[in-house]
Design a protein that fits this description.
- With 405 residues, this protein is mainly beta.
- It has 2 domains: 260 residues, no CATH class; 141 residues, NPCBM/NEW2 domain (Jelly Rolls).
- The protein is built from 1 helix and 35 strands.
- The strands form 6 sheets. The protein has a 10-stranded antiparallel sheet with strand order 4-3-2-1-5-20-16-17-18-19, with no helix packed on it. Strands 6-7-12-11-15-10 form a 6-stranded antiparallel barrel. Strands 21, 23, 28, 30, 33 and 35 form a 6-stranded antiparallel sheet that branches.
- A hairpin with a 2-residue loop joins strand 31 and strand 32.
Length: 405
């Protein structure tokens, strides 16, 4: 009737992160600092106090790093999605899991990164069975637009297949859901349940984690956000806001992004004004974290995850509220552009030009721009026509960010 796997023995909980192959001890990374240009090194450890140590003996603090990028990227055979079920947490994380059992108001789950025990009040949704995108009864849609004061239970019936029911989920004991429907309590075996989407008002998010907060991208599976407990001995221990600590094999990590509260990327902000004058009546959009040639921004031998790509002539203006001290970006023409690319990039404060790149081509070395912005009300980034108007001029402000000193 349903494709769900049999329940796993509870003893598997003890295996957690012990399963799998031997872990790599040191990982080659590109380190993107909050201030200055990236460098490459071999990451040895990150301690609980935030000290990042490299194999050459150098060290820095995690709050001074924007991201760590695996070089080269790991392969994609790590079992980041090797579980039949799924859980969406109210903190925003989503994980592949196997449901183990319920214990009243809590559930025990097994993720690819070890066991988890979570309060039902912290769940936004849970899928017990293997995904069936061709017939999920509207489960995915409900996850995106949950009900308010009741829950949706997606269960199989003997005659009508998978159906959605409005109920109240009161708890879970063993492999039985305790629900209330029409004022009557009943027990519903999880073997008959595809998934549950909990009402918006039926739970709450856990307290926000103190910064720095990190987001770990693995070779497979969704990104995971939490508190970095440590990185050592081939293990990245990541504490979720809900309490569980996941233990991730560092050989599967391709990127660690750090939110220290000291920087905000322009690609995450909405400009207050966009001015665009197309060349030859060919209107081209400006892009975030990509160019028309693909995701990311490429300058020389470096690929940037974040940034802005502007076709000439485009000006983006952002309001400033005094929260940050400096604007910083690496500017140039994306290295994948045509050899005819020729443009000028500028930075303006309160409508006054404070940086002008002069003529840049695809072969012009990228330039690091650092502009103090204290006291300014408006920041603008601009790409202007060069001698060829717009022949593949993919003008980029890579890693463009506002930061605090």
């Amino acid at each position: 009737m349903n494709p769900r796997r049999p329940l796993l023995p509870i003893a598997i909980l003890a295996l957690g992160a012990a399963a799998g192959t031997a872990r790599a001890q040191d990982v080659p990374m590109t380190i993107v600092p909050l201030v200055g240009e990236p460098r490459t090194g071999t990451l040895t450890s990150i301690d609980e106090d935030g000290t990042v140590t490299f194999d050459d003996g150098s060290a820095c603090q995690l709050v001074d790093v924007v991201e760590l990028v695996r070089e080269p990227a790991p392969n994609s055979d790590h079992p980041g999605t090797d579980r039949s079920g799924f859980v969406a947490l109210r903190s925003g994380n989503r994980l592949a899991v196997d449901f183990m059992r319920g214990d009243g108001s809590r559930v025990q789950l097994l993720s690819p990164y070890g066991p988890m025990e979570l309060g039902i009040e912290h769940l936004a949704a849970i899928r017990f069975a293997a995904e069936n995108p061709d017939d999920d009864g509207g489960f995915v849609t409900a996850v995106q637009s949950p009900p308010s004061s009741h829950d949706y239970v997606f269960a199989w019936t003997r005659d009508d297949g998978l159906k959605r029911y409005s109920m109240l989920v009161d708890g879970c004991d063993g492999d039985v859901l305790r629900v209330t429907a029409g004022g009557r309590s009943r027990d519903l075996p999880t073997s008959r349940v595809y998934g549950v989407v909990f009402g918006h008002d039926r739970g709450f998010a856990p307290p926000t984690l103190p910064k720095p907060i990190v987001t770990v991208d693995c070779s497979s599976g969704p990104s995971i956000t939490g508190r970095l407990v440590h990185w050592r001995g081939g293990e990245c221990a990541l504490g979720l806001a809900e309490g569980p600590v996941l233990r991730i094999d560092t050989s599967a990590v391709r990127r660690v992004s750090i939110d220290s509260g000291r920087a905000t990327f322009l690609s995450k902000l909405e400009p207050s004004e966009v001015r665009h004058t197309p060349a030859l009546n060919r209107d081209k959009p400006w892009l975030r974290d990509a160019t028309p040639l693909g995701t990311g921004i490429v300058l020389g031998d470096r690929t940037y995850r974040s940034g802005l790509c502007l076709p000439p002539r485009t000006t983006l203006t952002y309001p400033l509220d005094g929260s940050y001290d400096v604007f910083e970006a690496t500017v140039g023409i994306d290295s994948r552009s045509s050899r005819d690319a020729h443009a000028v990039l500028r930075v303006l404060l309160d409508d006054q030009v404070v940086f002008d790149s002069g003529a840049m081509t695809v072969s012009t070395p990228p330039r690091l721009v650092v502009v103090p912005i204290a006291g300014a009300k408006r920041l603008a980034v601009e790409a202007d026509f060069g001698q060829n108007l717009d022949l593949g001029d993919h003008c980029v402000f890579a890693g463009a960010r506002l930061r605090k000193d």
